[in-house]
UniProtKB/TrEMBL annotation:
Domain NYN: 95-248
Gene3D superfamilies: 5'-nuclease
Region: Disordered, residue numbers: 25-58
Species, as recorded: Cyanobacterium stanieri (strain ATCC 29140 / PCC 7202)
Classification via InterPro entries: LabA, NYN
Name under which the protein is recorded: NYN domain-containing protein
Biased composition (Basic and acidic residues): 25-39
Alphabetized CDD domains for the sequence: PIN_LabA
Entry's Gene Ontology molecular function annotations: RNA nuclease activity
Highest taxon of the lineage: Bacteria
């Protein structure tokens, strides 16, 4: 049962979640960790890694054939440079889209021993980093249509587009065990390319090497790719294909979910 509390401007959502089997059982998540939205009263504990700027969005002042110069004015006229500086001070920000492979990230967070707050993820990669958030997608497998209902509603209220798929049961001949899995890689790639004209940067929360080719194609379209995962959970192929790999533990002070 999910509880919604509104206390002094703090919106919290609590849910009960079952434990996952070990990774070697390859069982996908039936549930997600608690989500708690909180005000940002505490300062950042450690310096936040800086994302790489796109040079094409930081042009140097220059004069070209379309520049209008008033009659009898000099090229270094004070008014002209004030005009150019005003344009530069209001230059376009990079547009960013976030894609979170929820099941893959659950294992990564479980390995690290802490969980991130989806609201803080949006804040960190948009307002705090100076980028314009265009889309945020969250993908997860479900035991049934009502599974994780409260958690999904909370994600939607934060602005995420939530994609789901019912878990399927598979028999592993080598281990002699049944496992449940919902692979949403196709859904993630389809959303990436359906919205490719809307963003300049992608932040992909996943360590799955199956995304290698999709990432290479996006980079060929001059899209900057950041992959977020953790050591031991990031495929070599994916790490090699991306513009930048960011370990969850590097940004833990900025995105960690806290219980107070």
């Amino acid at each position: 049962m999910t509880n919604f509390n509104f206390n002094n401007g703090k919106y919290s959502i609590s849910n009960d979640y079952t434990q996952f089997n070990d990774l070697d059982k390859e069982k996908e998540s039936d549930n997600e960790p608690d989500l708690k939205l909180e005000t940002n009263d505490n300062p950042t504990l450690n310096p936040r890694p800086q994302l790489i700027p796109r040079p094409e969005y930081n042009p140097e002042p220059h004069i070209n054939s379309t520049t209008i110069i008033a009659p009898n004015s000099e090229i270094n006229n004070t008014n002209h440079y004030n005009y150019v500086n005003n344009i530069n001070s209001n230059r376009l920000r990079d547009r960013i889209s976030i894609f979170v492979d929820g099941n893959n990230m659950f294992y990564a967070q479980q390995k690290n021993g802490w969980f991130f707050d989806p609201r803080k993820v949006i804040d960190y990669f948009s307002e705090e980093s100076g980028f314009m958030l265009i889309n945020a997608f969250w993908y997860t497998g479900l035991k049934d249509s009502q599974d994780q209902r409260g958690f999904r509603d909370a994600l939607i209220s934060l602005g995420y587009t939530v994609r789901t798929k019912i878990l399927k049961e598979y028999y592993d001949d080598s281990s002699g065990r049944f496992s449940q899995k919902a692979n949403l890689d196709i859904e993630i790639v389809v959303d990436m390319f359906n919205t490719v004209d809307q963003y300049d940067r992608v932040v992909l929360f996943s360590g799955d090497g199956d995304f290698e080719r999709a990432i290479e194609l996006l980079r060929s379209k001059n899209t900057h790719i950041t992959v977020v995962s953790t050591e031991g959970m990031i495929a070599r192929e994916l790490r090699n294909a991306t513009d930048r790999y960011l370990d969850l533990n590097e940004i833990r002070p900025c995105i960690e979910k806290r219980d107070f």
